[in-house]
Specification:
By secondary structure, this protein is mainly alpha-helical. 86% of the residues lie in helices and 0% in strands. It has six helices and no strands.
């Protein structure tokens, strides 16, 4: 999804620049983002291939490593899509992309929180209760931090005021 969004945002930026008097600036930004995306995709391909041909990796480790590479790839593509949406002044897509990127970062914490919650439901063990509460606090703290960072990104781009950014 991140790669598709990045490509769409870059394409939208390039196509909208044809009808814009600030053609040179937007086209330059689009070309820069396209070059970044191409370089990153090639780097990802190399890393994934190195992992696949490594005889020391078992199937579980390989799948874990490829999953981590894929999450990193989606996150990087999302970052490029955010830059393209900001350059294109597509604020609806920008906010949606920021939220998608936040969900990618929260995924591992959500998994841990859900696991601890499930264990708590199965047992009344105090150790699981403490773990569940700790996982829930970690998830909520990270979510609040990422929401604040997204608001500050929007604020620094001049899209919303700093007070609105804090409430974002």
């Amino acid at each position: 999804k991140g790669i598709d969004n990045a490509n769409k945002a870059i394409y939208d930026l390039m196509s909208s620049s044809l009808n814009n008097p600030e053609l040179a600036t937007k086209l330059s930004k689009a070309n820069e983002l396209k070059a970044k995306a191409d370089l990153y995709n090639e780097d990802y391909r190399k890393k994934a291939e190195q992992a696949r041909v490594n005889p020391m990796l078992g199937a579980e480790t390989l799948n874990s490593r490829l999953g981590a590479l894929e999450r990193e790839r989606a996150f990087t593509a999302g970052t490029l899509a955010i830059e393209a949406a900001a350059a294109n002044q597509d604020y609806t897509s920008l906010k949606s992309l920021l939220n998608d990127q936040m969900q990618i970062e929260l995924e591992p914490l959500k998994f841990n929180r859900d696991f601890a919650s499930d264990m708590y439901k199965r047992t009344q063990d105090q150790a699981f209760q403490r773990q569940m509460k700790a996982e829930d606090r970690a998830y909520e703290a990270k979510k609040a931090q990422l929401e604040l960072e997204n608001g500050l990104k929007l604020s620094s781009m001049g899209i919303m005021s700093p007070k609105k950014a804090e409430a974002f």
